[in-house]
Amino acid sequence: MTVNERAARALKEILQKPGNDACADCGAADPEWASCSLGVFICLGCSGIHRNLPEIGKVKSVTLSRWEDSEVQFMAERGNKAMKAQYEVVVPVYYYKPTHKDCQALREQWIRAKYERKEFSTAGGKLPYEEGMREGMLMKRGRDNGQFFSRRFVLLEREGTLKYYAKQDAKMPKAVIKVDTINATFQPDKISNPNGLQITYLKENITRNIFLYHESSKEIVDWFNSIRYVQFHYLKVAFPGSSDAELKPKLTRNFLKEGYMEKTGPRQTEGFKRRWFTLDYRRLMYFKDPLDAFAKGEVYLGHRDLGYRVCTGLPTGTHCNGAWQHGITIVTPDRSFLFTCESESEQQDWISHFSSVIGTSMSPQEYSMEALFKHKY
Fold first, then answer.
1. What Å distances lie between residue 322 and 264, 295, 341, CA to CA?
2. Residue 220: pLDDT band by 50, 70, 90 thresholds?
3. How would you classify the pairing of strands 133-141 and 148-156?
4. Are 364 and 357 in contact (CB under 8 A)?
5. What is the pLDDT of residue 30?
6. Is a pLDDT exceeding 80 seen at residue 268?
7. How far apart are CA 218 and CA 221, in angstroms?
8. What is the DSSP string of 1-17?
9. Cβ(98)–Cβ(253) under 8 Å?
10. Phi and psi angles of residue 64, each rounded to the nearest 5 degrees, phi first
11. How far apart are CA 212 and CA 220, in angstroms?
């Protein structure tokens, strides 16, 4: 048996140990790369980030690279489980740990925070997201002209607000956003910037979007986690009896699904028009353009016991004059909403998400939100 064959067999056995079957950083299954300077197994995507880490960026393919016996032994003595116990000792509840589905900026800053800055290795220290106030300049997309301009943002824990100012020295904010209404999600493709962040919030019970970026991925990710920290602080006060596990899902979240569908109006005789749809858990919002500041309308998805359901196809007799023919009907207690999709696979994916939401039990806050939607629409 050659040295390489012996190393390959040993690495295969090491990969069978608990924790080594998923990427140490993003959780992707069956990692085929390893940081032989840290002793962790990682996926291809995370391996590229590790290569750029000074001093600890030694990466090898588990199957294609040549391994020394000492390196194999090093991996055997460490591994993902042991290294998580070292580098993830005190990851705060509010800190967003990205998955393999998240963007490069989030994954890179998580990896750098762990191994380069060692933010989570020792207890007791105050992290940069926990200052109580954050202030800085971010590029913000104009509501009407689509151009990005530098704007001053201020996040205040004591007020539970995020404010932005049209000019750096402006005294009055352009907007005051309550953190409990915020959802922040990274949207690099939609915003056409690798560090693009979308903030959705309620303004007088109407959904409002703002689109931001910063040239530094660390800066925009720090803002993101600072917002989550302030939200978590607010929730701890607002819901004193709730556990951390119960509060965590109430922080910023990725949208369940986004994409184009066609939609007809309430009389169901209007022409089907192409709209951009965003499913934010129970709220299905639709826009003329993905980067619109305001939703043209929203559909609330309550529980099936309240009369909500989703059906494949359109009601008999519906005149579908749109370009797409794969229909979806959402039935609510007040009316039905008719949509069409470009393909059957898109139709089935939307239906799967709608069915999952409608089949999930509602919280008291969601019952209140449903009543508000009935009043609005």
1. 9, 21, 10
2. very high
3. antiparallel
4. no
5. 94
6. no
7. 5
8. --HHHHHHHHHHHHHTS
9. no
10. -105, -25
11. 9
**What pLDDT does residue 167 have?**
87
- Torsion 273-275-279-282 (CA) sign: negative
pLDDT, tens digit (0-9, with 9 covering 90-100), for 43-95: 999 999 999 988 888 999 998 899 999 999 999 999 999 999 999 999 999 99
Q: According to the 3-state scheme, what is the secondary structure of 166-187? A: CCCCCCCCCEEEEHHHCEEEEC
Residues 6+ apart with CB under 8 A from 249: none
Q: Give the SS3 label for residue 293.
A: coil
Q: Are 88 and 119 in contact (CB under 8 A)?
A: no
- CB-based contact 33:20 (threshold 8 Å): no
Rounded Cα distance between 128 and 230, Å, is 12
Greater model confidence, 4 or 298:
298
For 62, the 3-state DSSP assignment is coil
Q: How far apart are CA 197 and CA 289, in angstroms?
A: 17
Q: At what angle do helices 217-238 and 104-111 cross, to 10 degrees?
A: 80
Tokens 């040993």 belong to residue: 10
